[in-house]
Amino acid sequence: MKEVSEKEQRTLQLQLVQFIDELCHRNSIDYSLAGGSLLGSIRHKGYIPWDDDIDLMLTRPNYDRLMSLLMEEQNENLTLKYYKANPIYLPFAKLCDTQTIGTSKTDLYSKNFGVNIDIFPLDILPEDKKTRDDFKRKINKKSFQLLASNPRGVEYASASKPLYFLGKLVLWLPYHIKNYDKYEKIAAEMEDIMQTYNESKNLYMGYACSFYPNEYVSVSVFDEYEDVEFEGFNFKKIRNHDAYLSQLYGDYMQLPPENKRVNHGYTKFYWK
């Protein structure tokens, strides 16, 4: 098989975002570039030079609507990885290109995905720090169960580095035995838990399963959206990107040290 070049990978990812952008535009759904992709749009007008993925985020109502539409409107070159459509032992969704396939020595799960983009749901989070931290710990524990429920060999131990793989292989084995092939039940439970505070009047919102303790901002940040240039395309972002990026990265316009400029290069993609 021929390896997908970096340029080809980015082209496919941009096509995936275009597909979502057009779908959201037709159905009046608000979405935003997220994380490093949002940072890249502001600082570089596209990818962060050493980055290799694209992240999107949507408030839970918009996320649910988008998932429903994607389950209806896929084509032969796209597949949605979402617990109600196709197994994804992760608490978010991926839209994948079906012309490609991933491979990795340690991330064995990657063979189930082609070139892809990540789509994250945003939920209300507790304002009190202790309550919020306890809530996130509960969700992260549930995410371990979700990952460990993967019934295919040792895919449950997939990781970015050999040492991490070996550690998960041993430490997560009890989770794997207990939760083996209980994916649908655990995924549904996790979605419910992540939405625990969505009917509350708490004023923070974020990706509830984030391992970054400071990934939360005011709910009002997700009220307004606007176009932003990304690799020559117009995609969507939250208008108040400064509040979000400052919370996650501090002085986000400052380039990190060279030893911190890393990507997800542990996975390679090939044309089928």
Large-scale geometry = globular
Rounded to the nearest angstrom, the distance between the terminal CA atoms is 6 Å
Order of helices and strands: HEHEHEEEEHHHHEEEEHE
The CATH class of the domain at 6-126 and 198-253 is Alpha Beta
Give the proportion of residues in helices: 25-40%
Produce a short descriptive summary.
This protein has 272 residues and is α+β, with helices and mostly antiparallel strands. 37% of the residues lie in helices and 19% in strands.
Characteristic terms for this protein:
alpha+beta, Beta Polymerase, domain 2, 7-stranded mixed β-sheet, about 35% helix
Explain how this protein is built.
By secondary structure, the chain is α+β, with helices and mostly antiparallel strands. The chain has a domain at 6-126 and 198-253: Beta Polymerase, domain 2 (2-Layer Sandwich). It has helices at 6-26, 35-43, 60-72, 129-148, 162-171, 173-179, 183-194, 241-249, and strands spanning 32-33, 55-59, 78-81, 93-97, 100-103, 116-125, 204-206, 217-218, 225-230, 233-238, 268-271. Strands 1, 2, 3, 4, 6, 7 and 8 form a 7-stranded mixed beta sheet that branches. Helix 4 (129-148) packs across helix 6 (173-179) and helix 4 runs antiparallel to helix 7. The radius of gyration is 18 Å and the shape is globular. The relative contact order is 0.19.
